[in-house]
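Reviewers of the previous submission asked for a worked example of the structure-prediction workflow described in the proposal, so we include one complete record here. The input consisted solely of the amino acid sequence. No template or homolog information was supplied to the procedure at any stage.
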Amino acid sequence: MNVSEAFGEVAGLIAEMAPEKVVALKAPPQMSERVEELVAHKKAGNITTEETVELERLLALDLFIGLTKARARIILAS
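From that input alone, the workflow returned the following structure tokens.
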């Protein structure tokens, strides 16, 4: 099992627990603000290694949440 498959498997398990709640999930405003700040640093060319790692982790979390919500929508539609 690769990382992508593992993310999908865990997303499916979480979605099955409470699909209505999963679909309603939203990132906290602070998270979105931090991503915007880090992206601005990256575009300006002055992002640190630590900030790059943080940005990658936040984007991975966002992707995981989106995948989990998609799985929950499929469950609710069936």
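Residues 11 and 67 are 6 Å apart (CA to CA). We consider this example representative of the routine output the project will generate in years two and three.
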